[in-house]
Each structure stands twice: as C-alpha cells, then as structure tokens.
C-alpha cells in the first residue's frame, strides 16, 4: 500500500500536465468535427499525445487505415525502446497478466519517472504511478471536448509547462552527481536542437527526432562511460 | 470511425506491450546496461528542449518557468513542488509582467 501511495504521489504532476494537454486534444478534435465520445475513446484507449493528435488529423482528413497505422507506428515506436528498457527495470517475477496491464500505460512521462527511480519497480508502485495520469488524460479530453472554456486560458497556458517542470526535476538531481548523465542530457539537447532547426532535417516528425536524439545520446554515453559505470 | 479508432489503439498497444511482456532475460553486457540506463535522461532532455519554450503563452514566461524549475530541482525539491512552482511562476509572469 505504501508503494502504491508513493506511486500516486509521483504520478500527480504527470496528471496535471496531462490534464492541460488532453484538454487541448478534446477541444481541437471536437472543433474539427469529431463526436466528443470518439475523442474521449481515443484518449482512453491510446494514452499518448503526439500519436493521438496525428491520428485524429488523419481520421478527420479522411485518410486510409494503412496511413493511420503507419503513422501511429512511426510516432509511437519510441515506446518500444522504453518498454524494452523497462523490462530490465521491473521485478523479474511480475507475471504475464500484470505485464499486459502495465504495458498499456508506458508513456514518456510514466516511463521516465519509473526508470529514474532507484531499485526495481514493482506492480503496485507502477499502477499507483499510472492511475492519476490516466484519469487526468481522460478527464482533460472530456472537459476539452464538452466545453471550450472550463479552465481559463491563463491557467491553461501556465499548466502547459507542468510536464517540462517535472522532466527537469527528474534530470537535474542525478546530473548534479554524475558526469555521464550531464553529458548524455546535453548531447540529447544538442541533437534535438540540430534536427529541429536545420533545414531538411527538420522535416522529420517529432517522434523520429526524439528517437534519434535518445538513441544517439545514450549510445555516446554508453561508449564513453560504460566502463566507469561498471567500476563505480 | 470505430475501425479507425481500433487500429490506432491496437498499434499503440502492441508497440508498448511486446518488449515488456516477452523479454524476460536480464542483460549483462555493460554497454547495453549503460545505454538503457541513459535512455530516460536522453528522452526527457530531448523532449524538453526546445519544446518548453513553446509550452506557455510566451517564450519569456517559459524562460521564467524554466529558470524556476532549474533552481528548485538543483536544490533537489520533489517533482510536484518543482512542477507546480514553475507553473506558478509562469502564471504570475503572464498576469503581471507581460
């Protein structure tokens, strides 16, 4: 129970960030002509931001199923990497049904919080961590979809930063203590900026840019620091 | 519409489910272990910069929020504290300074 509650606490900032992002999703899709329940069901069955925005755009534009499937695959392929990384981080004894449930809620934020946690991750902690973000994501979509202005604009724009504030709080403390984490973080930022602002390179979708930055920076970190990590 | 929504959900779920469910081996290679250890920090850094600058009403309020988050997380405050304080700074900044 203690672990579940710790999970809930760690999940609250994620939930707040999700509330504002999914609010935008609900609002945007309904304005573009999607029935509100379709928007809500997409949020409740996908629990992902970039993929949903792209997927909804394709549906609304009358795209094909194949186009939709390929876009979802490309934008979400980073979860494959995260799921793989998490397979090394969770208690080995967690059984199949529990793994099937946990898999559903691997998002960038939920993954990152659990991966940065010290020690192994158990089922209860992970569920505690995932439940508020799931509620926040669904509720935000519903609110955005049924009414345009429950949250005042000023509050909504301020909450837009919530997710990033949390990211920073995850990265900085270990970066203070470890040269390797600083190097990896700065490398990832450099790659991300390079791809975002260089002509031609910036035609890649944000999903790909994140994958390239992640794989590139982590690989450089591993090459430079693997031996050091092992010894100390 | 239902078919489209089902395909979206299925593709997203399968990508997340396959490695976690079927990869049970513990990896011992030091390079792979280090690589996996760095992924969260790399992902979060790449997602934060430059997106954070466009996450609020203006780049300036975002910078104020970023500064607040950097200082508080350097002091090792918790996730919720850092996140809410940064949002509060953005709110105050946008209300009174812009």
Could you provide a short overview of the structure?
The complex is a heterodimer of chains A (232) and B (98). Chain A has 232 residues and is an all-alpha fold.
**Termini Cα gap of chain B:** 43 Å
- Unreliable spans of chain A: none
Largest interface: A-B, 103 and 74 residues
Look at the helices and sheets of chain B and give the structural class. Answer: mainly alpha
User: What form of chain B results from the Cα inertia axes?
Assistant: flat
Radius of gyration of chain B: 19 Å
Order of helices and strands of chain A: HHHHHHHHHHHH
Strand element count of chain A: 0
Descriptive report:
The complex is a heterodimer of chains A (232) and B (98). Chain A is mainly α and 232 residues long. Chain A has two domains: 169 residues, no CATH class; 55 residues. Chain A has twelve helices and no strands. Chain B has a domain of 49 residues. Chain B is mostly helical. Helices cover 77% and strands 0% of the residues of chain B. In chain B, helix 3 packs antiparallel against helix 4. Chain B is built from four helices and no strands. At the A-B interface, helix 1, helix 2, helix 3, helix 4 and helix 5 of A face helix 1, helix 2, helix 3 and helix 4 of B.
Describe the secondary-structure layout.
The complex is a heterodimer of chains A (232) and B (98).
Chain A: H1 2-31, H2 36-46, H3 49-60, H4 65-76, H5 78-87, H6 96-104, H7 108-116, H8 123-146, H9 153-159, H10 162-177, H11 179-197, H12 206-231
Helix pairs in contact in A: 1-2, 1-3, 1-8, 1-10, 2-8, 3-4, 5-7, 7-10, 10-11, 11-12
Chain B: H1 2-22, H2 30-48, H3 59-74, H4 79-97
């Amino acid at each position: 129970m203690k672990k579940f509650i710790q999970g809930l606490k760690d999940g609250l900032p994620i939930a707040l960030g999700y509330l504002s992002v999914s609010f935008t999703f609900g609002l945007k899709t309904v304005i573009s002509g999607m029935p509100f329940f379709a928007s809500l069901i997409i949020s409740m069955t996908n629990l992902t931001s970039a993929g949903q925005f792209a997927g909804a755009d394709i549906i609304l534009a009358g795209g094909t199923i194949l186009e939709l499937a390929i876009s979802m695959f490309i934008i979400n392929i980073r979860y494959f990497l995260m799921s793989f990384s998490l397979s090394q981080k969770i208690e080995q004894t967690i059984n199949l049904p529990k793994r099937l449930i946990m898999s559903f809620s691997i998002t960038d934020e939920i993954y990152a919080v659990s991966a940065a946690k010290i020690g192994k991750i158990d089922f209860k902690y992970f569920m505690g961590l995932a439940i508020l973000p799931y509620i926040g994501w669904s509720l935000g979509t519903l609110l955005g979809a049924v009414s345009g202005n429950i949250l005042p604009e000023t509050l909504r724009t301020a909450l837009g930063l919530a997710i990033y504030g949390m990211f920073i709080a995850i990265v900085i403390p270990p970066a203070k203590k470890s040269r390797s984490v600083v190097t990896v973080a700065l490398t990832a930022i450099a790659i991300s900026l390079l791809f975002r602002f260089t002509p031609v390179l910036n035609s890649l979708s944000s999903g790909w840019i994140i994958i390239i930055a992640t794989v590139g920076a982590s690989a450089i970190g591993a090459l430079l620091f693997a031996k050091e990590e092992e010894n100390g | 519409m239902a078919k489209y929504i089902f395909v979206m959900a299925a593709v997203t779920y399968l990508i997340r489910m396959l490695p976690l469910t079927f990869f049970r081996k513990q990896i011992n290679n030091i390079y792979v272990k280090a690589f996996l250890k760095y992924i969260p920090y790399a992902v979060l850094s790449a997602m934060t910069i430059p997106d954070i600058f466009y996450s609020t009403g203006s780049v300036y309020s975002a910078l104020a929020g970023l500064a607040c988050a950097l200082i508080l997380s350097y002091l090792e405050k918790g996730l919720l504290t850092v996140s809410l304080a940064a949002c509060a700074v953005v709110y105050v900044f946008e209300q009174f300074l812009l």
